[in-house]
Amino acid sequence: MPTALPGVLARSTIVLFGDSLTQRGFEPEGWAAALAHYYGRRADVYNRGYGGYNTRWARELAPALFARPPQGQAHLLATVWFGANDACISTERAHVPLLEFEANLETIVQQARQVARVVVVMTPPPVHGPSRLAYQKRKYGARATGVEERSTEVAGRYGDVAARVAGRHGCALLDVHQLMLREADWPRYVGAGTEDGDGLHLSGAGQRFVAEKLLALLPTLGLDRDALAYDAPWGFEVDANEPAASLRAHFARHRGALQANSGVLGVDRGESRPLPGAGEPYSYGGVPAGAFLLGVACGVVLLALTRRPRRVRFRN
What we know:
Layout: E1 12-18, H1 20-23, H2 31-38, E2 43-49, H3 55-65, E3 75-81, H4 98-115, E4 116-122, H5 129-140, H6 152-168, E5 172-174, H7 176-181, H8 204-217, H9 243-253, H10 255-262, E6 292-297, E7 300-305
Parallel strand pairs: 1-2, 1-3, 3-4, 4-5
Antiparallel strand pairs: 6-7
Helix pairs in contact: 2-8, 3-4, 4-6
């Protein structure tokens, strides 16, 4: 294969870091699967969700997960979604006090900011108590305590802290907690009314809800998939008689965009700091949260990210 072809580095990378809400995002109707589909042939999505984890344990993984890639390459996007386990009652092993949660999450976000062009912080969903107790009884039978170990109220406090951390570091915020509570039938998003729902993890409807909100947010952050080049042409664009020549021609036409896709132009984040206006909320559908600068160079589109994303909050 001619060395002029870009190889696998022509694709961006996306890292999803979280607990089981992220791990389960690759279910057939999952929000992470929808993200991978959205960026198909443009970016590779790495699901690093760890069921049962809190920020205390995740903080130990973050340095390796968000180690600076060689040659200054940057991930296109990183999502950070924790709090559902931290927010359980103090008698549960996964509980993390609110102040420690804030410190842990801040450390994780700072590390993600160093290697990702855009970081989206997500808040834990509300909890449907009756479904949670029914699940507890199914799982433990006579040993079930009958005590709700999680609640919407407490999850909301952890969500508020996550929002504060996002704002402090110039990250976008997908406030799953508040977005769901706006819906009168939100319990169905966490499994209420389903045979195996547990009142916390996302049902198929909940997965689609999160996917819809996240995919609506991304273009406002300068991450519209149409701004990214395909790493290789469609099959119908390949010359069957001269495949190597047509592949080289595709790369020549899109060289700048492909390099921007993969981050090979180099990204030096420097010290993580909030963007101008990062402390102020922006309404859904408002001012774009960031943009790629499109220029024409040698007759091709050169895509380069010229500024960090401004914070976008999906909250009342």
